[in-house]
Amino acid sequence: MDVCMKIIKNNKDFFDQSLDEIKLLKYVNKHDPADKNHILRLYDYFYYREHLLIVCELLKANLYEFHKFNRESGGEVYFTMPRLQSVTIQCLEALQFLHGLGLIHCDLKPENILVKSYSRCEVKVIDLGSSCFETDHLCSYVQSRSYRAPEVILGLPYDKKIDIWSLGCILAELCTGNVLFQNDSPATLLARVIGIIGPIEQEMMAKGRDTYKYFTKNHMLYERNQDTNRLEYLIPKKTSLRHRLPMGDQGFIDFVAQLLEVNPKKRPSASEALKHPWLSYPYEPISS
Mean pLDDT, to the nearest integer, of 196-212? Predict the structure, then answer.
């Protein structure tokens, strides 16, 4: 049987994070004995010459690498609407399962979704190294920046809905080949979100522990220029999801817009998102 063997750097931080991931994978796999929920399978782990080695199922490229290769090779586009629909259902089922166990993934991004079968368009979610239980004391620095939810940036309490935001960002990226909220700092990320999705509600701004780092008292977005050390206003460029996703059909755009609801209270859970009409739209079957 082919397996993937991950060798952990002999460094306390990597080691501790990997032990946490092993514990979580064992817990998650135990609750999914039939392997139906699209999460990586852990087979074994052991020490060898003062290194920790983790043995898990062998998967194929991650969605970031595969999408890049697909575009650069000039072949036929892989992420068509039917395949995006299939990937979405699998990711939402994985999130529904994790969230049902009280876990938040906390780092969902294209690099952490791996292909299991290209022809059948099967994927699996990996990397529980940043995951935490909702009941844990949640750390304020979570999620890779381009996929980070507004509530995390503003320093608000967060929950499993941050994974739903990340999935919305991923689907837009798979559709176009470009990061949806291109940014080089949290402030420029907020400018993109406001420009594409819309304003952040006053209540969220008022309650955010870190709102002052990005907004003036009269709600102007600003950033410190690293070269001049002067504060500069950022004016969000007004556009829309429809404009940013020209290849997407209306059902897809409506669906992504729901996942990218700025207010987490209005954002659907994984179970609610699975009921969206776009996910049952009868596209042509995926040819294997």
Answer: 97
CA distance 200 to 87: 29
Phi and psi at 253, nearest 5°, equal: -65, -40
Reported as a pLDDT band with limits 50, 70 and 90, residue 35 is very high
How many residues are listed for the chain in this entry?
288
Q: Are 134 and 142 in contact (CB under 8 A)?
A: no
Which two tokens mark 207? 């309650």
pTM (2 decimals)?
Answer: 0.96
CA angle 133, 134, 137 (to 5 degrees): 85
What's the whole-number average pLDDT of the chain? 95
- Which domains, ranges and CATH numbers included, belong to the chain? 3-57 (3.30.200.20), 63-280 (1.10.510.10)
* CB neighbour class for 214 (10 Å; exposed up to 12, middle 13-18, buried from 19): buried
End-to-end Cα separation, the chain, in angstroms: 24
Write out the two tokens for 50: 């003062």
| 35 catalytic per annotation | no
Question: Does 248 score more than 80 pLDDT?
Answer: yes
Q: For 40-75, what is each residue's pLDDT tens digit?
A: 999 999 999 989 999 999 999 999 999 999 988 987
- Taking residue 49's Cβ as centre, other Cβ atoms within 10 Å add up to 7
Q: Identify whether the C-beta of residue 129 lies closer than 8 Å to the C-beta of residue 21.
A: yes
Six-digit token string for 143: 């999620």
Which position among 13, 107, 136, 163 bears the catalytic label? Answer: 107
Helix pair angle (63-72, 161-176), 10° resolution: 10
